[in-house]
Amino acid sequence: MTQTDPRFHVPAPHARPGDTPDFSHIEVPPAGEAKRPEPTVAAHETRDLATGLVRVLDHNHQAVGEWDPKLDAEPLREGLKHMVLTRVYDDRMLKLQRQGKMSFYMKSTGEEAVAVAAAMALDKGDMVFPSYRQQGILFARGRDIVDMMCHCISNSRDNLKGRQLPVHYTWAEGNFFSISGNLTTQFPQAVGYAMACQYKGESQIAASWIGEGSTAEGDFHGALVLASTYKAPVILNVVNNQWAISTFQGIAGGQAETFALKGQGYGLATLRIDGNDFLAVYAATQWAAERARAGLGATVIESYTYRADAHSTSDDPSGYRPKGEEAKWPLGDPIERLKQHLIGLGEWDEERHAALEKELDELVIKSYKQAESFGTLHDGPLSPVESIFEDVYAEPDWRLRRQRQDLGV
Amino acid sequence: MTQTDPRFHVPAPHARPGDTPDFSHIEVPPAGEAKRPEPTVAAHETRDLATGLVRVLDHNHQAVGEWDPKLDAEPLREGLKHMVLTRVYDDRMLKLQRQGKMSFYMKSTGEEAVAVAAAMALDKGDMVFPSYRQQGILFARGRDIVDMMCHCISNSRDNLKGRQLPVHYTWAEGNFFSISGNLTTQFPQAVGYAMACQYKGESQIAASWIGEGSTAEGDFHGALVLASTYKAPVILNVVNNQWAISTFQGIAGGQAETFALKGQGYGLATLRIDGNDFLAVYAATQWAAERARAGLGATVIESYTYRADAHSTSDDPSGYRPKGEEAKWPLGDPIERLKQHLIGLGEWDEERHAALEKELDELVIKSYKQAESFGTLHDGPLSPVESIFEDVYAEPDWRLRRQRQDLGV
Amino acid sequence: MAKMNMIQSLNSALDNAMEKDPNVISFGEDAGYFGGVFRVTAGLQEKYGLDRSFDAPINEAAITAMAIGMAAKGLRPVAEIQFADYIFPAIDQIVSELSRIRYRTAGQFTTPVVVRTPCGGGIRGGQTHSMSPEAFFTQVPGIQVIMPSNPYDAKGLLIAAIESPDPVVFFEPKRLYNGPFDGDPTKALETWAKHEKGEVPEGHYTLPIGKAEVVREGNDVTIVAYGTLVHVALAAAEREGIDAEIIDLKTLVPYDIDTIAASVNKTGRCVVSQEAPRTSGFAAELAAQIQEECFYALEAPIQRVTGWDTPYPHAHEWAYFPGPQRFINAIREVLEA
Amino acid sequence: MAKMNMIQSLNSALDNAMEKDPNVISFGEDAGYFGGVFRVTAGLQEKYGLDRSFDAPINEAAITAMAIGMAAKGLRPVAEIQFADYIFPAIDQIVSELSRIRYRTAGQFTTPVVVRTPCGGGIRGGQTHSMSPEAFFTQVPGIQVIMPSNPYDAKGLLIAAIESPDPVVFFEPKRLYNGPFDGDPTKALETWAKHEKGEVPEGHYTLPIGKAEVVREGNDVTIVAYGTLVHVALAAAEREGIDAEIIDLKTLVPYDIDTIAASVNKTGRCVVSQEAPRTSGFAAELAAQIQEECFYALEAPIQRVTGWDTPYPHAHEWAYFPGPQRFINAIREVLEA
Ligand SMILES: Cc1ncc(C[n+]2csc(CCOP(=O)(O)OP(=O)(O)O)c2C)c(N)n1
Ligand SMILES: Cc1ncc(C[n+]2csc(CCOP(=O)(O)OP(=O)(O)O)c2C)c(N)n1
Ligand SMILES: [Mg+2]
Ligand SMILES: [Mg+2]
Q1: pTM of this structure
Q2: Which pLDDT tens digit goes with each residue over B18-32?
Q3: Does ligand 2 lie within 6 Å of residue B107's CB atom?
C-alpha cells in the first residue's frame, strides 16, 4: 500500500529528523513593543496581548519597554542563580539517573525562567500547582536540595515515602502542591484553592502550570470555566515548549493562533510572553498576581519557550525532531540572556558566572553525597515497607491491617 | 446565621421569581447589520460575528441585509409548517404526559427555528448529533409522527424497544444519531463522524447541538480541539436558550462575552445568531455547511434564543425565574416572526395559519390515536420483555443467556 | 425528633454541618438557588449565603476538582453530582486525585471532600438516570463509600461523612427519597411518616462509618443488602415467612465484615445483593470475601441477587430491577441447596 | 512463523488488520509519527499514511469520542490510551456511550471500537503508570474486555478485537511487552525469543474472544490468572512443585466459565488472582461465580491473590506486586485447608 494524501487534515511540524531545523515561521516581535495596560484593565482589552509576545530583553540584552519590571540587580542575580542551579541540578540528576540511581527523571532545560521568575514574582505564601517541569519554583522558594534529592532517589528521607515517581515533588511548607502524574488535573484544583483563599478572607492566590499539550484535556476547559464563573484569584500558566513528548504543539493547538487566546473566550485576561525572557515572565506574573489580588480574576499566561532536552529519561527526541533544534530556537536561552543582561548592566561578569556554576555544581554534588547517605532506591534504605499501608486513609481499616499482616511487615 | 456578601463571585441572573422580567441588559443589534463574509474567509475574520448577532428579520418582519438567504415562499411555508408542527406536537405530548401516557417529556417551545431551519439548510444526508431539544429536525426531515410517538410512549412499535427515555430519539434512516441523556458527549463524536466522512471521500458533513449550559463540560472543549486539529467538516451549534434547568447562562458563561467567542480560541469560524429568526438560522447553517464542505473546517454557531417553557416535565421554572419572562424575550417568537414575514410577502395569511394549526393539531391527535393502537407505556403492549437482553452485544454471551433464563422469559 | 423523609434528613444534615462548621460548603448543578433537582440543598443558600451554597457549571470533573482544591485549603466541600450516572466525567478527579492526595503527599495535604449523588432506579429514569455505580468506587483505595437506606441513617452518615478526614462518595438511593420501597411498583407510594427510621433528630448526630446493622434477625439465611434493596429484601422475607437475617450494610468501604461473618456463621447460608449489573458488582466482592471467611459454615453457595448485565431499560424497568421475587428465588435456592 | 515480542506482535496485528480492511485506523497520543511511547504503532503511519495512523491531542475522552463517531460511520478505529492510568478521563465516553450505542439505538448504530492500553506494574512507573483498571470495564454491559499474556495471544486477540462487532477494551500488560516475567525482579530480563508463545505467524489469524486456555495441567488446585500474573502463577507452581492447573483467562468479559468450572470441579481448590487492588477487583467476580458454580466440589475457600488496597507505590513496587510468594502462600492455604 502506498501513501496517499491524507483524507483529512493532520497537522505536522516544520521539521522532522533529517530536516534542517526551521523556525522561520515563528514571528518574534521586537522587545519592548507590547503595551502594558494597568492590571485593572478589562479582560477583553488584553486580547492583543494574547496574540503578541511580551518581551523585555532585546537582542542586545537590554530591558526595554513598558513591561520592564525594573528590578534591582540583587533580585536579578538571585534569579540567575536559581536558574543556574536548576540547570546544574537537572544535569546532575540526569547523569545519576543514567547511573541507575533513580528510576526516572525529567529536566526543565531551556524553561528555567518560566518557573523561577514566576516564583519570584509571586508571594511565598501563594500556593503553586505545578506540572512536573517547574522544579525551578522549588529553588526560588529555597527548598533544601538534599530533601529534593532524597525524594528523587526515594530513600528513607523521601518526604513522600517513596510513593511518587521522582520529580513529582510535594512541599506543603513551601506552599507547593502535590505534582500529579495525570496531566492537567491540577489546573481546576488550583481554581478551587484560589476560591477558598477568598472564602477565608486571605490575600493568598494560587497559580498553576501545564504544558501546551495538556491544554487539550477537558480539565483545562474546566479550570477556565470555573475561573471565569467565580472570578477566582488564580494564574493559569500554559508553558508552550513546542513539544508534548513526540507531538508538536500543533496537535493540541490545531488552527488556533495562540494558546493564550483561548482565555479570551472565557472573558479572562490573557498574556503571551517570551518564556525565555526572565524579565517578561517576572513582569507578567506580577501583573497577573496584582490583578488577582485586586479581585479581578484570573489571567491565562502562555509562556512561549522550547523544551531544549528530552521529554524525560524515557524519551529520545531524535526520533521525532531534528537534532540540534534547540540551538536554533529564536528566543535563545533564558540563562544566557539574563546573564548577558546583568553583564550589560555591569552587575555581573563571566568570571563570577563561571564561579557560580562551579559553586552550584559543587553544592549539588555535595548535596547528592549527603542525600545518598540516607539511601538510594537501588540499595536502600527506603521508607519502611509497612509505610505502603499508611496514609491511604487517616486510619487503616481492617482490610489494610490484614493486608499488612499478609505481607508480614 | 445571617447572609453576608459572598466572599467570592457567584453570578446571578437579572431577575428571580417575584421580580419583574428584565432583559434590558440584552443588546439587540438591528437586523441586516452584520456583514456576511464569504464562507471561505479566515476563521479569525469571523471574530466580530462571534460577538454580534446575525439577524435577518427586522422589526417589521422584513428580510434585510447580506445574510438574507433569499428563499422562495415555498420553503418558507414549509419551514413554518415544520415549526408549527413541532409546537403543536410538543403541546400535545405535554398534555399526554400529564395524563400519564408517558414517563417524561421535553418541549422545545420558543426554539423551533434553531432545529427546523438548520435541518432545512443541511442536506438530508448530513448526519445530525442533536441534544434532546431539536425534535424540529425530525419534522423537517419528514420522520413519521406515529413512529415518534411510539417511541415516546415506549410501545410495541418503539424503534428503540422501550430502552430510552421519551424524546431520546434515534433514526438512522434519517441520519439522526442517537440522543444521549449525558450532556455534550455527542459533540466530539460528531467531529469523529465528520472526519470519517472525509476519510470515505464523501461530501456528507456532521452537525451537532448542545445547550449553553452544556458548553461547560469537558467534551465541549474536546470537540473544539478535535475540530481545530483535524479541520473536520462539522457544525458545532450552541443553543443559548438562557437556562440550564434552574441555572441561568451566566453559570456556564461566567465573564465570557458570548459562547460563540470560545470558538475563536480554537481558530474556528464563529457566528452568533438570532435563534428566533428562521432566516438567520437558515443562512448561518448554509454558510457553515458550505465552509465545511469546502474543506475549511468547523463553525461554532451560537443560537441566541429563550427556553420559553419548563426544562422538562420534571421541572417547574416558577421556582427560579419570573413568571411570564418568556413573553418579554426581546427576540420574539420564531413562529410568529416567520408567519408575519410570509404575510408581509403576501404569501400567507391568518386564515391559512389558523387552518394549518388546526390541520396539524388534528394530524397529531390522529397520529396519537394510531400510535396508541400499538400500546402505551402504562398499559402495554411493550417490546417483548426478553428484548432487554438483546443488543447489549451483537450476540448475547452466556451471562445474558442465563440471566434471561433466570427472569423466565 | 421529627418526621423526615430522606430529602429532609439529608437537608437537615447539611444544615447542621454548615451551622457547626463555617468551612462546610455545598455546591453542584442546580444545587444553589434552586436547592437541587431533588431539593436536598433547598434553603441553604438563603440561610448561609451565596458562597456557602451555590450553583456550579455543568462539568462534574471541574466540580470535583474545585472541591479538591478547596479541601486542600481547609474547607469541607460537599459536592453534589446531579445523578450518579453523571459521575463518570468526574471519575478521573476521584480516582487519580481525590483518593490519593493524602497518600501521594504522605499526609502533607488532605482533601476531605464529600461527593453526594442520587443513584438507583425505580423512577423510570431510563439508562441515564438509574445507575448504581457504587462498585466502581469501592475499587478505589483512599475513598470511603456509603449508601444509606433510610432518613435516620442518611442524616447520621452524611454528617459523619462530612466530618470524616477521608474523602467519601455518598450514594443516595433516589427511589427512597420520599418513602421506603419494597419493590412492588404497583402498590400505592408509601411515605417515611409511618416508618421508624423516618423519626430523625433535628440536631447534630453521627453514625459510625463502617458499621452495618442487622435490621432483621433470623436463623436460616443471611441477606446482605444496602440502599433500596434493604427494603426489598425485608419484603421478600416477610412475604415468604422466611427466618432471614437481613443486614443493612450502609458503608461499602470499609464494609463491616465482622457483622456479616457473624451472621453467616450463624445461618450457614447467604444471599448478597446489588441493584447494579451483576458482573463485577459489589455483591461479587461480598461473596468472594464471605466464602473465604465463612467457608466451613456455608451449607450452600452464596447467591447473588443483582440487576442484569444490560443497561437499565426504561420501559421494562421492573424486569430489570431486582425485586422481591428475585430475592425469593435466591433464598429458595440457598435454602433448598 | 517469526520470533516476536509482544510489541512486535501487536504491531503485526495492526499491520495485518489495516492491510486487510481500509476502514481500520489507529490513533492516540504519540501513536502516529513516533509510533507510540511503547512503539506498538511504529511504522504504520509510514506504511498507511497520515490519516490511518495519526497523533491525537492529549484528551482521552475526545480520542474515544472521535473513535465512536468514526465507528458510527463504518470505520474500525483502534484508539490507544497511552497508559491505562489515563483511561479515566475517557471512562464516561466508554461507560455512557461506547458501551450502549447498539443497545440504545436498538442496533441502528454500532460502534465497534477497540481501545488499546498498556496496563500493570513492574516497570517502576509509580502510581500513575502502573494501574490495572480492568475490573472497572468488566462492570460495563456492552464492552468486551481482553488481556493477553503473550505475543501469540496478543496478536490473535487484537485482530479478533478489531474484527469484533462489539467494542473492546484491550489491556496490554506492559511488563510483558519485552519478555515474560515470573515475578522476580532480581533476575536478568528474559525475552520472548525462547518462549513458545514468542513464535508468531506473520499473517492474519484470530483467537476466539471468550476462550480461556489451560496453560498448565494439574490436579491439586486451579489457579486462574490473566496478563502478567499467568507467568507468576506458573513460576510459583514450578518453584513449589505443586500439581496446579493454571488457566490463562485472556478474555475477562465474557469470561470462560466453562473452562474454569471444569478445572475447579476437578481440583476442588482454587486461587484467583489480579494485580489490581483487592477490593472489588475482577478476582472477586471470579470467586463469586466459581463458588456458586462449583460449591460442592470446593474443598477449601477460594483464595484471592491481589495487589493491596493502596495506590501502586513507586519505591516499594515489589512489596505491592503479587509475586510468586503470594501465590505460594495462597496455594498452601487452599491445599492445607
Ligand atoms: C491524563 C494523561 N494523559 C497522558 C499522559 C502521558 N504524558 C505524560 S507527559 C505528556 C506530554 C505532555 O506535554 P505538555 O503538556 O506539552 O508538557 P511538557 O512535557 O511539554 O512540559 C503525556 C502525553 C499523562 N501523564 N496524563
Ligand atoms: C453529564 C450530565 N450532567 C448533568 C445532567 C443533568 N442535566 C440534564 S439537562 C441539564 C441542563 C442542560 O442545560 P443546557 O445545556 O443549557 O440545555 P437546555 O436544556 O437548555 O436545552 C442538566 C444539568 C446530564 N444530563 N448530563
Ligand atoms: Mg509541551
Ligand atoms: Mg440552555
Answers
A1: 0.98
A2: 999 999 999 999 999
A3: no
ipTM of the complex: 0.98
Closest residue CA from atom 19 of ligand 1: A244
| Residue of A252, A234, A232, A227 lying closest to A242 (CA atoms) | A252
- How large is the average pLDDT for residues A341-368? 98
* Angstroms from B227 CA to nearest CA on chain D: 10
Residue C89 included in any domain: yes
Closest CA to A106 of A63, A48, A152: A152
A127 touches chain B (CB under 8 A): no
State residue A4's pLDDT score: 65
Q: Is residue C231 annotated as part of the catalytic site, yes or no?
A: no
The rounded Cα A208 to chain-centroid distance in angstroms is 9
- CB interface of B with A, residues 215-254, below 8 Å: 216-222, 225, 227-232, 250-254
Instruction: Note whether D15 and D155 are same-domain residues.
Output: yes
* Angle, CA D228 vertex, CA D224 and CA D231 arms, to 5°: 70
Q: Write out pLDDT tens, residues B301-359.
A: 999 999 999 999 999 999 999 999 999 999 999 999 999 999 999 999 999 999 999 99
Residues of C in contact with B392 (CB under 8 A): 309-311
Nearest alpha carbon, ligand 1 atom 17: A211
Contact (CB, 8 A) for A211 and A217: no
- Taking contacts as CB-CB distances below 8 angstroms, the residues of chain D near C95 are 88
Grid coordinates representing C14 are: 447539611
Q: How far is CA C63 from CA A16, C98, D153, in A?
A: 41, 12, 42
Task: Please say whether the dihedral angle defined by the alpha carbons of residues C77, C78, C80 and C84, taken in this order, is positive or negative.
Answer: positive
B37 to chain D, any CB pair closer than 8 A? The answer is: no
Residue type for C106, please? A
Angle, alpha carbons A65-A70-A76 (nearest 5°): 120
Which domains can be identified in chain B, with CATH numbers? Answer: 43-311+324-378 (3.40.50.970)
Exposed/middle/buried for residue A350 (C-beta within 10 Å: 0-12, 13-18, 19+): exposed
- The confidence band for A27, taking pLDDT boundaries of 50, 70 and 90, is very high
Range of the domain at D321: 213-336
Average pLDDT, chain A: 97
Same domain, D257 and D111: no
Minimal-distance CA residue of chain A relative to B260: A265
CB B251 near ligand 2, within 6 Å: no
Nine cell digits for residue C185: 411498583
Helix, strand or coil, per DSSP, at residue D199: strand
B171 close contact with D: CB closer than 8 A: yes
Q: Name which of B8, B219, B267 is nearest A255 (Cβ-Cβ).
A: B267
Q: How confident is the model at residue B1 (pLDDT cuts 50, 70, 90)?
A: very low
Give pLDDT, residue B2. Answer: 46
Residue C144 covered by a domain: yes
Taking contacts as CB-CB distances below 8 angstroms, the residues of chain B near C51 are 6-8, 10
B247 touches chain D (CB under 8 A): no
Residues C67 and D287: their CA atoms lie apart, in Å, by 37
CA distance A165 to chain C (A): 10
Q: Which chain C residues are Cβ-neighbours of A161 within 8 angstroms?
A: 106
Same domain, C227 and C174: no
**Residue range D144-157: mean pLDDT, rounded:** 98
Whether the CB of B392 is below 8 Å from some CB of chain D: the reply is: yes
Dihedral sign of CA atoms C307, C160, C215, C173 in order: negative
